[in-house]
Amino acid sequence: MKKFTIGLEIPFLSALCIILCAFSDPESIEQYVGFLQKTLSDHYDSNQENGKIKRYELNITNNGFCRYKRYFNNGKTEYFAFKLSKFRDMDYLGNTTAGKLYLKTKGDDVIVQTYKDRGGDVDSMATQVVIPLKNIEAEDLNLIRDNLERIIKLP
User: Fold this and answer.
1) Is 91 within 8 Å of 104 (Cβ atoms)?
2) Taking the CA of residue 148 as centre, how many other CA atoms within 13 Å lie in the half-sphere pointing to its CB?
3) Which domain does 51 fall in, by range?
4) Exposed site from 5, 32, 42, 112, fewest CB < 10 Å?
5) How many domains does one find in the chain?
6) Interval 119-146: pLDDT, tens
7) At what angle do helices 29-43 and 138-153 cross, to 10 degrees?
8) Residue 154 binned pLDDT confidence (cut-offs 50, 70, 90)
């Protein structure tokens, strides 16, 4: 009788695991993007710009782009954009109160556009985007890195 019971338990448990996996919520880019957008927006520190910035826009899109736009008081606009799949590494320089997040790409993958500058409109490429942050813990930074790395691994 014991052999019969064990013989039934193994297929039953295997079938249960397959059913549970079939109905589990697969991870999607929307989940990662939502977390990144909320975290970066909540911790953005406009005070580090010394009053030079009138406003900013920081967007992480569902199609896998990071877009950061700064509008200066003098009318100048700076725009940075890169595809999240080009993310290579990140650094944070500062402490839990205030610092700068450096999002680095694999190469010159960051589009940089400057409008209404004294030197004219300039288009160039860069290897990183720098975002000022405040009140952020090491755990939050680790979660940012994890979400960026998971986006890279998505098909």
Assistant:
1) yes
2) 25
3) 27-153
4) 5
5) 1
6) 888 899 999 999 999 999 999 999 999 9
7) 150
8) confident
CA atoms lying within 13 Å on the CB side of residue 103: 29
Domain contains 16: no
Query: CA-to-CA distance for 40 and 135, rounded, in angstroms?
Result: 11
Here the tokens at position 84 are: 């999240």
- Determine, yes or no, domain membership for 22: no
Find the largest Cα–Cα distance for the chain: 88
**Which residues, including other chains, have CB under 8 Å from residue 3's CB and lie 6 or more apart?**
none
Beta-carbon neighbour count of residue 154 at 10 Å? 12
CA 80-144-63 angle, to 5 degrees, is 55
Q: Which two tokens stand for residue 33?
A: 């993007």
Task: Please state, in angstroms and rounded to a whole number, the distance separating the CA atoms of residues 131 and 139.
Answer: 18
Q: How do residues 74-123 score in pLDDT, each as one tens digit?
A: 999 999 999 999 999 999 999 999 999 999 999 999 999 999 888 888 89
Q: What is the pTM of this model?
A: 0.79
Token pair in block for residue 35: 């977390």
Residue 83 within a domain: yes
Q: Which pLDDT does position 35 carry in this prediction?
A: 94
